[in-house]
Amino acid sequence: MQKIRKGDTVVVTTGRDKGKRGEVLRVLDGALLVSGINQVKRNVRPNPMKNEVGGIVTKEAPIAAANVAIYNASTQKADAVAIKAADGGRKQRVFKSTGQAV
Predict the structure, then answer these.
(1) What pTM, to 2 d.p., does this model score?
(2) How far apart are CA 41 and CA 79, in angstroms?
(3) Is 20 exposed, middle or buried (0-12, 13-18, 19+ CB in 10 A)?
(4) What is the pLDDT of residue 25?
(5) What is the pLDDT of residue 89?
(6) Can you tell me the distance from the alpha carbon of 65 to that of 54, in angstroms, rounded to the nearest whole number?
(7) Where are the domains of the chain?
């Protein structure tokens, strides 16, 4: 079970975007694509077959999963996540500081 999943709100803990919050768009192998975080500019060629206009495009680049922490809305801070067995032997993600389910 992964500690950070698609749709979670995360806070960047290191790097140039430190302190920013965003939603996880995709989970890659050891990295995450987070909306509005780690944006890079790429030069794109026009492709008339796909109706794409060329130019400079700003998009999100992957950020290492170790450089983000999940956002705890109740404490309004970044928090660590633990995986505990719930009733019936089912695994559940919980915040380490409060013990509440994610």
Answers:
(1) 0.83
(2) 31
(3) middle
(4) 96
(5) 83
(6) 31
(7) 9-95
Query: pLDDT digits over 47-59, tens only?
Result: 999 999 999 999 9
Of all residues in the chain, what percent are helix, strand and coil, respectively (each to 5)? Answer: 5, 50, 45
Query: What distances in angstroms separate CA 90 from CA 70, 87, 94, 97, 101, one per listed residue?
Result: 21, 6, 13, 21, 13
Class of domain 9-95: mainly beta
**pLDDT value, residue 57:** 93
The reported pLDDT for the residue numbered 38 is 95
**Helix H or strand E encompassing 12:** strand 9-12
Interval 35-50 mean pLDDT: 95
Taking only Cα atoms into account, the Rg of the chain, rounded to an integer number of angstroms, comes to 17
DSSP 50: T
Cα 3 to the chain's mean position, in Å? Answer: 11
